[in-house]
Amino acid sequence: MKPQQSLKFSHQAPKKAKKKTAEAGSNVFSMFEQSQIQEFKEAFTIMDQNRDGFIDKGDLRDTYAALGRLNVGNDELDEMMKEAPGPINFTIFLAMFGEKLKGTDPEETILNAFKIFDPEGTGVLRGDDIKYHLMSQADKFTEDEVNQMFTNFPLDVAGNLDYKNLCYVITHGEEKEQE
Fold it and tell me: Can you say how many angstroms the Cα of residue 159 is from the centroid of all Cα atoms in its chain?
């Protein structure tokens, strides 16, 4: 009778452990779409230069070197490593990106804010108009900040800002592929 009881007990314990592990990981993975997770995995794999499953200070230095920046100081690398709660495996890496993106409003909210200035629903705003509003309303932008935005999100040949693409980049971190 004892072997059955211990067998039954040992059978229940792994289920609970599995459930707890799945819950801990699922929160991080549910923050992103599958395609985003795949892109983060590719980035993680590129950064994990020694292929040990963790990004460490040496991996960061090697990644910077691969990008052409050879003189990265130890202090700078140490500061980056301090942002992580512990060793940086893929789940921690994903959680760190989730934390960075957490304050971003949903795409629909940002789109609705721009649509106030686009009653015809064209998806674009005149660059001069957006510059005026950014420099004269609420948290006023400086001219340098507006110019930086237009450098990162250039106006089209007609002088318009494609705010739908801008919103997509803000919330997804990349430009939408042309359909």
Answer: 29
pLDDT tens across the length of the chain (179 residues): 444 443 333 333 333 333 333 333 447 788 778 888 888 899 899 999 899 999 999 999 998 888 888 888 999 999 989 988 889 999 999 888 777 766 666 778 888 888 888 888 899 999 999 899 889 987 889 999 999 888 888 999 999 999 888 888 877 766 665 55
Distance, CA of 68 to CA of 25 (rounded, Å) = 34
Of residues 102, 92, 107, 91, the one with CA closest to residue 174 = 107
- pTM for the model: 0.47
- Structural contact between residues 143 and 102, judged by C-beta atoms closer than 8 angstroms: no
β-bridge mates for residue 162, sequence order: 124
